[in-house]
Amino acid sequence: MNGHPPGVQGAGLGLRRAFIDAVAAQPPAGVDFFEVAPENWIGIGGRFGRRFRALCERVPMVCHGLSLSVGGPTPLDETFLGRLKAFLDGHQISLYSEHLSYSSDDGHLYDLLPIPFTEEAVHHVAARVQRVQEVLGRRIALENASYYAAPEQAMSEVAFINAVLAEADCDLLLDLNNLYVNSLNHRYDPLGFLRQLPGGRIRYAHVAGHHLEPDGLRVDTHGAAVIDPVWDLLREAYRLFGVFPTLLERDFNLPPLEDLLAEMETIAALQRERGGSEERRRAHG
Q: Measuring CA to CA, which residue among 251, 72, 100 is closest to residue 163?
């Protein structure tokens, strides 16, 4: 089941409680789908819970997880997976994605840490992804994560990603900001990396902003506007693979909703430039 999930297409936006009242009352015409971290919404009742349920009935929703720790050394949290399945099923959310990283050992580390790029790690992660897909009863997508240290690189980053996706038989959440940040921090060609990815496995994409440290280090913050080189990567990805659903991430320094919607218009313009989703259906359908 490659390609975007039913009902998800076009341009999306990360849902934040700061503006949920506004969008639940009148979903913006420019937002084709929303994305939430399920950890922030599982078990939430009251006004926010009612707003969320109402929004799910009007606009397609996808989930992007924070705490699965798919590359972690300790057993998967099966209790969490059960709660996650009930949440996804209860809100009729077809797509769940997570980071290709780990975030826990004996407890949660509250950060996304890099996995060694080794054959052993490929097998470890793939087996865990297969178990997650079995429990959830749906394919998941893994996001290419930003990282700032490389504990072991027996293979390249892109070879590691491709090997995990193939062995786990799961899909890709293509984060173009992470690709750009990593390419500068670790000194590789972002276009060459992009061309090696399996386009048929792309479920959707993220674009976001990042922070430039004085020493030149790029830090993935989701706290600024998307910069032109990341937009250029999105344009090239559409050219290579056809148009796929694409989401604007903004987690910090939130501007007014109107500014986010204006930034989303760049996604829509690039999609129109490539003929919308019809080209992707022809290429990968």
A: 100
Number of domains in the chain: 1
Q: Does 2 reside within a domain?
A: no
Look at residue 218 and give its three-state secondary structure: strand
Domain-located, residue 5: no
Where are any strands of DSSP class E within 8-101? 11-14, 33-36, 61-64, 96-99
Domain encompassing residue 100:
11-284
Count how many Cα atoms sit within 13 Å of the Cα of residue 21 in the half-sphere of its side chain. 3
Could you tell me the two tokens for 262? 């204006």
**Exposed, middle or buried: residue 3 (CB in 10 Å: 0-12, 13-18, 19+)?**
buried
130/151 Cα distance (integer angstroms): 24
Q: Please give the sequence-ordered ranges of beta strands (E in DSSP) within 15-78, or none if there are none.
A: 33-36, 61-64
CA–CA–CA angle 194, 198, 201 (5° rounding): 120
Lowest-confidence region among 196-210, 218-232, 252-266? 218-232
Give pLDDT tens digits for 145-176: 888 777 778 899 999 999 999 999 999 999 99
15 forms bridges with which residues in the sheet? none
Measured over the CA atoms of residue 267, residue 58, residue 19 and residue 29, the dihedral's sign is positive
Residue 282 is predicted with a pLDDT of 40
Q: How far apart are CA 55 and CA 10, in angstroms?
A: 17
In which residue are the tokens 């700032």 written?
148
State the CATH number of the domain containing residue 144: 3.20.20.150
Cα angle 213, 71, 249; round to 5: 45
